[in-house]
Amino acid sequence: MYTSIVPNRRQLLIQDLRFYAFVHYTVNTFTNREWGSGKESERVFAPRAQNAEQWCEAIAAAGMKGVILTCKHHDGFCLWPTKTTAHSVKNSPYKGGRGDVVREVSDACRKYGLKFGVYLSPWDRNCPLYGTPAYNDFYIAQLTELLTNYGDIFMLWLDGACGADAAGQPKQKYDFERIWRTAVELQPEIVMSGCAPDVRWIGNESGKTRESEWNVVPRFAYDQQNLAANCQQDDDLRKFQKRCQDAMLPDLGSREFLANYDDFMWYPAEVDVSIRLGWFYHPLQRYTLKSLRHLMKIYYTSAGSNALLLLNVPPNRKGLLPKADVKRLREMGAWLQKEDSLVLDARRTDADGGFTVALDFPRQSVDRVRLSEDTTKSQRVEAFEIYANGQRVFRGTVIGFSRIAIFDRPVTTDRLEVRITRCRNEPYIDRAEVCATGAYRPW
């Protein structure tokens, strides 16, 4: 019944973080592009007031637990003084060529209690070795520098974008197996996401999720060729949308869907979305900053619905997060903190072999329950209902490692019952918390 499929040690670590930041920052920030050509002069990278601590302070205030920095994007420009190429921050005006953005961000993360992760694009439009077997050695050398010189790295984010030859075929065959092996050898606790074996891409970049997000999925979702094909191979909108549709199959883990396969794996979903329209900063996109309501809805349908949330926050040309973005992050964090403060001291009683969880507390208005399963015993719950005063106040499907069940309207009561109505064998509910009314209501 699929309950033998459980997360590995690294996957258990990442599900406890749930909400973390992407920081897209490179020469594109200064050229007003999303994908650089690789021909940009190093002198383009010239932030006047860069402050990684400002970034991390705002990110931590939002309630995020980590930061992933684009140490190298497709343009090949490196934000650290790498020994592998001259196309790096060491030949830029920043700090007279003595700057190290990766060092600054990793240090700032630790100051503000955040985990630090790296994005290292396999595509490199500047490297003359790209398109040859020698390029894979070049890439491993860069990866080794990042994973040995900057302390503990919680995540390696791998993009599958790949330049094409004249016939439209991928120019470089990435040695993903070697990349994954090297990463774990150098950082045993590292989680790998994107074109990687630990965390899967949700299938879009707009913050949309499935009604039922399963961690136990058919192994085809991990197939290396499918991964590479689905991760931003080109900028043709119609082709990209088609790949998104393929990756966003409405059902990846129900019993009915799994019955068609015979090989399965634990592969949680990650929702990657930007706080603005673009991934990099663009001056004319200041009006595309997502509203608080939009961001909170994304949060509750991802981090609150058994998925990981990776929210991108791009610094501007000064090297700072824009004031409006910082304000929005602080608003988001204040509401999440408010929810934490409203968790009641409820007495829990399990009955019916764990299929009913009762929560008793002083009579008051409540509007949500926060649930999680003990995923060391897999993901089991397929459907559940919540009752108050003899009436059903919520009906849901999966729980997984995080489910925030928000009622249609607050209810005044002194007892809630969570009833598991469909399950793969017996349930193992790890957390069951009830919150007083007063937290953010996104719908």
Layout of strands and helices, then pairs:
Blueprint: H1 9-17, E1 19-23, H2 28-31, H3 52-61, E2 66-72, H4 101-111, E3 115-120, H5 134-149, E4 155-158, H6 176-186, E5 191-194, E6 200-201, E7 216-218, H7 224-230, H8 237-247, H9 255-258, E8 264-266, E9 269-274, H10 292-301, E10 308-312, H11 323-341, E11 347-351, E12 356-373, E13 381-388, E14 391-396, E15 403-423, E16 429-436
Parallel strand pairs: 1-2, 1-10, 2-3, 3-4, 4-5, 6-9, 9-10
Antiparallel strand pairs: 7-8, 11-12, 12-15, 12-16, 13-14, 13-15
Helix pairs in contact: 3-4, 3-11, 5-6
Task: Please describe what this structure looks like.
This protein has helices at 9-17, 28-31, 52-61, 101-111, 134-149, 176-186, 224-230, 237-247, 255-258, 292-301, 323-341, and strands at 19-23, 66-72, 115-120, 155-158, 191-194, 200-201, 216-218, 264-266, 269-274, 308-312, 347-351, 356-373, 381-388, 391-396, 403-423, 429-436. It has 443 residues and is α/β, with parallel strands linked by helices. The chain has two domains: 9-341, Glycosidases (TIM Barrel, Alpha-Beta Barrel); 347-436, Jelly Rolls, CATH 2.60.120.260. α3 (52-61) packs parallel to α11 (323-341) and α5 packs parallel to α6 (176-186). The longest helix has 19 residues, at 323-341. The protein is globular and about 70 Å long.
